[in-house]
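In response to a reviewer's request, we include the raw inputs and outputs for one of the modeled complexes. The two entities were modeled together in a single run.
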Amino acid sequence: MEATPKLGILAGGGSAPRELISVCRAQKRSFFIIALEGQADTDLMCDASIGLGAFGKLKKICQQERLSEMVMLGRVRRPSVAELKPDFLGIKVIAKIGLNSLGDDGLLRSVSKAIEDECGVSIVGAHDVFKELLTPEGVLTKVGPDRQSQKDIKRGFKVVRSLGSLDVGQAAVVQRGLVLGVEAIEGTDALIARAGELKREGGGGIVVKCAKPQQDDRFDLPTLGPSTIDCIVHAGFVGLAVESGRSLFLEREKTIEAANKAGIFIVGLCMEEKDGE
Amino acid sequence: MEATPKLGILAGGGSAPRELISVCRAQKRSFFIIALEGQADTDLMCDASIGLGAFGKLKKICQQERLSEMVMLGRVRRPSVAELKPDFLGIKVIAKIGLNSLGDDGLLRSVSKAIEDECGVSIVGAHDVFKELLTPEGVLTKVGPDRQSQKDIKRGFKVVRSLGSLDVGQAAVVQRGLVLGVEAIEGTDALIARAGELKREGGGGIVVKCAKPQQDDRFDLPTLGPSTIDCIVHAGFVGLAVESGRSLFLEREKTIEAANKAGIFIVGLCMEEKDGE
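The model returned the following structure tokens for the whole complex.
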């Protein structure tokens, strides 16, 4: 057995899978990309693709490629029943899981458990494999948060943690003490755009992202990348605070460069310390 | 002194002030309407109007009309500094309050305190004067919530209470266990419209409104009326649950009729019981 076995990447939408691939390449780790049909970006270079209900096909791929570790990464819209098209094993798995009344987190946990049980792979987090994808602690840009932004960050984290503990959302926008918007399932970019239109006078305004306290870190860690900065610039806010160690920082150099160019700050904050305050 | 003194109504935007006026008329209570310039609906029949910074003018009106009780009612956008145009007393009051970094609730409390101190009136809640404006308990429509909606209502109230305790928002939309959206400052109608676009398969979907646990009930109680039902119908959700006793139910007959016509439920729930669960 190799020291670092071939990594399976089960890819949903967005740039996160591509990012993981480039880290694999840089580290010369072999990988095998399985695109989720109708979810992964169409220009993702994949080795195979499967429908969302194709557990049988996935099992076969895992066996043929001798995959023992797999990362599930990227955005997955909840499919319609018509889209599921389960194969034989898929029907069995779906019957076992049930698809009713589950929050997104619960569903992801059940699906990954089923993949582990049926396909004989371990589902791991992208950050378990590549620590460098995680957001580091500290001010990552030329400018840092001023006093007002620091207060807003504190308020934002408090709000997001509270929402997160109820399995609702991972982000909020705060301007001069006023919470302009909180995220549920619309996604951070949509939240930032909306909050931009509700902005008050007086300047400032920050975006906060942090993981749900109880969430399984193998799935759906908060993600930041160039598009996050684009949204913040477009909405006219001044910075971004993310939980360090529990968020994926995509295209880090490019993102920080864009932030510096716009005079926006990015800061990674350790939540354990914050909670202790 | 009269048993029921003339009621001052300091009117912001929306239909709430008009509603209170019609209740006054029905009860033959005399009233005096002071429209907030740039905030109150332009077609509101008012007895006087004042700018947001015109504390001196307001004081004069209160004295001339012998107002001892006043209700502040209706939507007030936070004004720009240019819009404030304070008069002499206004400058004094604004300097005392300060306008920085206050959440909306804090600002309202400070402003009403200043009005009470400077103008010699008591600021009361609309519902203190007219109990019939409050939402009653129970199912108010022909149909009530089914089992799934009951679960969603429970989840929604939990989320909104948690947000409310952080002085963030008063509403959420839940569908089959999934929180589609939570309100910050965008207003419930905007929340419902947004959540409608994020709706999943499977039907259902309910809107929950409740007051912030710690809020001063004289201001900004959650409000429902015909437009709330319009929004719910348009978004394709099945019902509305509101906190009974701590929300204003505007144009009740018309609203219930619209809900019945659309097959939507409205239910008033007592929060004290819910909290005890």
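As requested, we also summarize the result in words. Chain B has a mean pLDDT of 88. The first helix of chain B runs from residue 16 to 26.
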